[in-house]
Design goal:
The radius of gyration is 19 Å and the shape is elongated. It has one domain. Helices cover about 15% and strands about 20% of the residues. By secondary structure, it is an alpha+beta fold. It contains 3 helices and 4 strands.
């Protein structure tokens, strides 16, 4: 599709670790992604990140846990204070930064039909 920069013009992928296909799972599992998609389509504001949240449950509701999720291939890196000294610090979105993953993924795949779309060889 022309590389990550070209792809980001019309598609973004947000990988939420531990989130089930339709919600649920051991991690934050809700977001306002639909609202961000509407903002992209209607206002041209492409999302760089989303916030995944997990509710506290019960009648009080609220947010028990929240984490930023950055567009692929970036991951959230915690840069805040030691959670042992400040247990609420990991729930503060300002304590995370986008970062390259520690393990680089090989995203280039040779597609069997790529030659059909490339320049045509001259015929003899």
């Amino acid at each position: 599709m022309g590389g990550q920069q070209e792809l980001d013009k019309f598609a973004r992928l947000f990988m939420v670790p531990g989130m089930g296909h339709c919600g649920g799972g051991p991690s934050p599992n809700t977001s306002e992604l639909l609202l961000q998609m509407v903002a992209w389509v209607e206002n041209g504001q492409a999302p760089e990140s989303i916030v995944a949240r997990q509710g506290a449950g019960g009648r009080g509701g609220g947010v028990a846990l929240q984490r930023p999720v950055y567009r692929y291939p970036l991951v959230a890196r915690y840069v805040g204070p030691d959670p042992a000294t400040n247990p609420n610090a990991p729930n503060d979105l300002a304590n995370f930064r986008p970062a390259e993953p520690r393990v680089k993924h090989v995203d280039h795949l040779d597609w069997v039909g790529a030659s059909w779309l490339g320049p045509k060889a001259p015929r003899n």
